[in-house]
């Protein structure tokens, strides 16, 4: 992207940034309830993440804040050990993400299969939904265990949740000038205040300080036991956050037909979480919904995120007492809408239409996401998908040979060229027996990884050793960048395919 901002871009990015800030407030508070952490920790987490990733990240326009992928993991740690251990886990989470970036491992997220992505998204939606059901429980008088609401208390709660959701869904039909989630929370809050409806509010459960965040080293013992406690949570937090962030980055790449920098984004995410842990904040990762809002508004510059961060801090400093009046039911309604919009309903149509193995992998990933954790779910899905893919596609590489004129032969490659098919690809050519001029057409092929690039380079070297002319057609731009021996043999055509290859040199 170019560095200069036009007036139109400045206006677009500032307005979109303000819109995102207003939308983040109720979600950050709702996710704080999910994780059972102080509300200010969730709001500070949104501030630090959106600011640091907007300034330093590899995907301008992508929004990062406290999210469901991190909130659901923090809950058990928070309940058993308390908030200081959560802050320590967030610090270690940031360090792990920084090391992940330094090792340039972000490229591997590009090869996560679609069915795994769908399973992860659907599983996460179910986890968030289940976490909201706790809001329908109240303490038993006398200090007993919590029990489900009933009678008028339950009816009021359900009615306010439905009101919030109705406003969120119906408002966009009238106007999109204000965030629907914000208006849903505001309308429900207004109704509760005006009609004096008895219901639990944010202020009943927590007090918002409304101060600037200050440095706060996690108050935990510097011991191996502390590391033993937080390390499993930190690794799961880091993995969950990176998966959600990089999958969101990939989606924005596709929507904008541009290329983000996943390793740089991973580094920024790590720094954001590291800083968050030392300032009493929860950290977080990329948010799909808010990021898509920016893309839809064409707010793809760093200014949008910086505006969001500034607006968030202004809200924290000067509007915290108003936030305390928001009913808990309004936040539950917001989260139910988040669940509905997160769940990929279109995936239900795949039953009976996609191969049974692909559907089974997606369902397995969703189940593991719900009952175990996102990182293990995605890892399991990727391994199973990779084995299935390698088995099916390695044997589907075909080459059609055409001799159009004397002294020239054309090889039309069809199929997927990657580590499992690279060896068989090389064996399909015979430089010794081929005529003086050879053309290899990759229009109907797809190059996946560095093993494929090496196979093409090695083949070019074989032809060059025999003094024969080789021409490579319809390779994507990434291929032309990565090739060494065969770089000068590539031709450019307007019909060349556009896709990305997982390789360190272009990340």
Overall description:
The chain folds into two domains: 8-347, no CATH class; 398-506, STAS domain (Transcription Regulator spoIIAA, 2-Layer Sandwich), CATH 3.30.750. Helices cover 59% and strands 9% of the residues. The protein contains 19 helices and eight strands. It has a four-stranded mixed β-sheet with strand order 5-6-7-8, covered by helices on one side. Strands 1-4 form a two-stranded antiparallel sheet. Strand 6 (408-417), helix 17 and strand 7 form a beta-alpha-beta unit. Helix 1 (7-35) runs antiparallel to helix 2 (39-56), helix 1 (7-35) packs parallel to helix 3 (68-81) and helix 4 packs across helix 9 (224-256). It is elongated, with a radius of gyration of 26 Å. Its main location: membrane. Keywords: Membrane, Transmembrane, Transmembrane helix.
For this entry, give a set of tags.
single chain; 507 residues; Transcription Regulator spoIIAA; four-stranded mixed β-sheet; two-stranded antiparallel ribbon; 19 helices; elongated
Walk me through the topology.
Blueprint: H1 7-35, H2 39-56, E1 64-65, H3 68-81, H4 83-102, H5 114-132, E2 137-140, E3 144-148, H6 151-174, H7 180-194, H8 202-205, H9 224-256, H10 262-277, E4 285-286, H11 288-296, H12 302-318, H13 320-323, H14 328-342, H15 356-371, H16 374-393, E5 398-405, E6 408-417, H17 422-427, E7 437-447, H18 450-465, E8 469-473, H19 477-482
Helix pairs in contact: 1-2, 1-3, 1-7, 1-12, 1-14, 2-10, 2-12, 3-4, 3-9, 4-9, 4-10, 5-14, 5-15, 5-16, 6-7, 6-14, 7-14, 9-10, 9-11, 9-16, 15-16
Protein name: Sodium-independent anion transporter
Pfam families: STAS, Sulfate_transp
Keywords: Membrane, Transmembrane, Transmembrane helix
């Amino acid at each position: 992207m170019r560095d200069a901002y036009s007036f139109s871009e400045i206006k677009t990015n500032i307005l979109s940034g303000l819109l995102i800030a207003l939308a983040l407030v109720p979600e950050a508070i709702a996710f704080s309830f999910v994780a059972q952490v102080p509300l200010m920790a969730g709001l500070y987490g949104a501030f630090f993440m959106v600011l640091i990733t907007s300034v330093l990240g590899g995907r301008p326009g992508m929004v990062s804040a406290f999210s469901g992928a991190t909130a659901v993991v923090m809950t058990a740690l928070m309940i058993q050990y308390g908030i200081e251990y959560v802050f320590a886990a967030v610090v270690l989470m940031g360090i792990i993400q920084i090391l992940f970036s330094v090792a340039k491992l972000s490229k591997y997220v590009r090869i996560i299969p679609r069915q795994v992505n769908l399973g992860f998204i659907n599983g996460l939606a179910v986890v968030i939904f289940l976490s909201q059901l706790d809001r329908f429980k109240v303490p038993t008088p006398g200090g007993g265990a919590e029990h489900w609401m009933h009678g008028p208390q339950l009816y009021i709660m359900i009615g306010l949740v439905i009101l919030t959701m109705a406003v969120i869904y119906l408002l966009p039909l009238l106007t999109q000038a204000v965030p629907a989630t914000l208006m849903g929370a505001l309308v429900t809050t207004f109704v509760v205040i005006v009609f004096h409806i008895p219901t639990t509010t944010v202020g009943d459960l927590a007090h918002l300080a409304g101060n600037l965040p200050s440095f706060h080293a996690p108050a935990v013992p510097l011991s191996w036991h502390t590391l033993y406690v937080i390390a499993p949570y930190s690794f799961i937090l880091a993995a969950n956050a990176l998966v959600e962030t990089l999958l969101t980055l990939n989606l924005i790449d596709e929507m904008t037909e541009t290329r983000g920098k996943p390793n740089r984004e991973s580094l920024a995410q790590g720094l954001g979480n590291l800083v968050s842990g030392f300032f009493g904040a929860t950290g977080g990762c990329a948010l799909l919904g808010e990021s898509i809002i920016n893309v839809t508004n064409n707010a793809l510059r760093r200014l949008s995120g910086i505006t969001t961060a500034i607006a968030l801090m202004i809200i924290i400093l000067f509007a915290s007492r108003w936030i305390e009046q928001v009913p808990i039911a309004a936040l539950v309604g917001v989260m139910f809408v988040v669940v509905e919009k997160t769940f990929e309903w279109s995936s239900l149509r795949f039953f009976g239409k996609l191969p049974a193995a692909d559907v089974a992998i997606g369902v397995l990933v969703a189940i593991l996401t719900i009952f175990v954790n996102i990182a293990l779910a995605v890892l399991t899905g990727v391994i199973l998908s990779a084995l299935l893919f390698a088995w099916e596609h390695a044997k589907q590489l075909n080459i059609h040979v055409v001799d159009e004129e004397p002294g020239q032969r054309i090889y039309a490659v069809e199929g997927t060229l990657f580590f499992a098919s690279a060896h068989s690809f090389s064996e399909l050519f015979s430089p010794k027996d081929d005529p003086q001029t050879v053309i290899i057409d990759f229009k109907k092929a797809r190059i996946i990884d560095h093993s494929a690039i090496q196979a093409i380079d090695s083949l070019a070297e074989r032809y060059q050793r025999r003094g024969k002319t080789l021409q490579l057609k319809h390779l994507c731009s990434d291929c032309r960048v990565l090739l060494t021996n065969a770089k000068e043999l590539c031709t450019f055509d307007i019909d060349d395919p556009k896709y990305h290859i997982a390789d360190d040199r272009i990340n």
